[in-house]
């Protein structure tokens, strides 16, 4: 049996939004935010996304696991990118004249053999601001993304993608993908409890890495086999219903409200405006049209 993400049934403005509006907002904002490193624009987007998430009235106890994973992943991405690049990757900024604060001995990539060697890790106003901008961008996207599974009826996910114009096969595949991880987590929990009742102790695995992997067979094999059998059952059920042969109808049909249409129009307008500014900014070195290609650092930080 398939299960879904932990949908929280609640009457809030975000819960009442059309799923298509939420998906388009996430897509438009993600693509727009990826086109700039201006800290003030990203900060404005972060505040807006936080307010949007606040309207969903989701409790920390309901989303704790998701946010712990997001925080961990964001830290890894931000600091991993900084250390791997040696602080030398800042989108759209000339780092030949950095306002350096300090540097630390570190390893970096070289242009000659052995290609990895000692290299100072520079901490500058520009690079630290970029790290902050990356973190704010990732968290703002997370605010919009986390709200979708927790505020959207699982039965409306596939319908939303279908009414966005995707074929039935793609819409249903996306609907199943939303259910896959929660179902896999449920199967893992059930299998682990069953194996522990038979004396299997996950905390006392010994040996090397390969030995430990081999001793996980009583846990991994039933989960994999169960997933394969479940997938075959779904395929057989779809074939019996001639899925994919002709045009399908869906039990639920979504109806957009004026607020949904307004949100979708606003999201697409902002995305198109940012894209146009990004293109025009390549032809100007200063001024309002170049704003997306600047970090927007305050003057007092550069002295």
From TrEMBL:
Record PANTHER family: PROTEIN ABCI12, CHLOROPLASTIC (PTHR33514)
Top-level taxon of the source organism: Bacteria
Main localization (coarse): membrane
Cross-referenced CDD domains: EcfT (cd16914)
Protein topology in the membrane: Multi-pass membrane protein
Any Pfam family hit: CbiQ
Keyword Membrane on entry: yes
Keywords: Membrane, Transmembrane, Transmembrane helix
Transmembrane segments: 26-54, 66-84, 262-284
Protein's cellular compartments: Membrane
Key word Flavoprotein present: no
Protein name in the entry: Cobalt ABC transporter permease
Recorded GO CC terms: plasma membrane
């Amino acid at each position: 049996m398939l299960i879904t993400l932990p949908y929280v049934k609640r009457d809030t403005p975000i819960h009442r939004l059309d799923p298509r509006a939420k998906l388009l907002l996430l897509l438009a904002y993600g693509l727009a935010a990826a086109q700039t490193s201006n800290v003030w624009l990203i900060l404005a987007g972060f505040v807006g996304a936080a307010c949007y998430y606040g309207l969903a009235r989701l409790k920390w106890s309901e989303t704790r696991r998701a946010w712990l994973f997001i925080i961990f992943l964001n830290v890894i991405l931000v600091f991993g990118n900084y250390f791997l690049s040696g602080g030398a990757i800042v989108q759209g900024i000339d780092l030949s004249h950095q306002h350096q604060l300090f540097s630390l001995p570190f390893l970096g990539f070289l242009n000659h053999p052995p290609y990895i060697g000692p290299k100072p890790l520079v901490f500058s106003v520009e690079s630290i601001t970029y790290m902050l901008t990356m973190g704010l961008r990732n968290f703002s996207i997370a605010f919009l993304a986390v709200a979708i599974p927790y505020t959207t009826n699982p039965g409306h996910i596939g319908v939303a993608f279908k009414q966005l114009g995707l074929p039935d096969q793609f819409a249903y595949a996306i609907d199943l993908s939303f259910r896959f991880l929660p179902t896999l987590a449920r199967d893992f929990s059930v299998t682990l409890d069953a194996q522990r009742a038979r004396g299997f102790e996950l905390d006392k695995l010994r040996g090397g890495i390969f030995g430990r992997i081999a001793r996980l067979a009583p846990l991994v094999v039933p989960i994999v086999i169960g997933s394969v059998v479940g997938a075959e059952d779904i395929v057989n059920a779809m074939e019996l219903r001639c899925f994919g042969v002709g045009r399908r109808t869906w039990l639920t049909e979504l109806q957009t409200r004026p607020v949904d249409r307004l949100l979708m129009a606003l999201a697409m307008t902002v995305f198109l405006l940012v894209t146009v500014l990004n293109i025009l900014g390549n032809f100007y070195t200063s001024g309002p049209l170049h704003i997306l290609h600047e970090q927007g650092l305050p003057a007092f930080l550069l002295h």
